[in-house]
Specification:
- The chain is mainly alpha-helical and about 230 residues long.
- It is built from ten helices and two strands, in the order ααααααααββαα.
- A hairpin with an 8-residue loop joins strand 1 and strand 2.
- The longest helix is centred in the last third of the chain and has 31 residues.
Length: about 230
Amino acid sequence: MPYASSRARFALLQRVFAQGRSPLMDCLAQMSVLYEDLRIETFALTANEDEVKRLDCLDHKYRINYFLRRSIATLLEFRGCLIKMSRTEEFRTERSSSFNPDAPKSRKSQRELFATVSKALRFFDLHHALLKALRNAVGGHFNDMAAAQATSNVGPEAVGRLEVIFDNARRGAGPKLHYAGEIAATAFAKSLPGIKPRQEEIDDAIQMISEGYAHAVRSAHALVILFLWERFT
């Protein structure tokens, strides 16, 4: 039966990332942080209520909406990082070397890894317009333009809930702004195509982001094997 195994290596990060002297290594350092950000954001976006119970202070919809906004911003940053990396001289040289007809077998075996990165770039290019529109609508964080868009478009039937906890001992007292989720969702939904019902389009956006995360994971894995694994020795 197949089983997963892991191996760990350690190295001085100054040597691995060339102390700022390699554009490719700078991009890989950026990718590393964005990759782990995406791991957290996508888990929180897709996890069930039991897995992230403490995050759902209001309800699971607010948590989903928050991490939806954050993951869109991170995916766009990841795309920009991939593009910049793919244009570095170091990346192009390594890629050309692997596709050289006279390349040794060890080099040719890297072609699939480079192809994985190319597939990710094509995916992000295909969905860039929508990702950018969504990012601009909510600004990554919820800015004043997003708030104005929400308040001018909130549905006439939308009912908000405000809860205030009064505790004379001043432990855990304060407001719970349940209506904030509806405001955030309204701003987000205004940047969607508007062809399907709102919740269906939000679900489609979540699916697209999940696919984007999958491409990010596969391309990050490929780049780690191509450029980092041997440097950790």
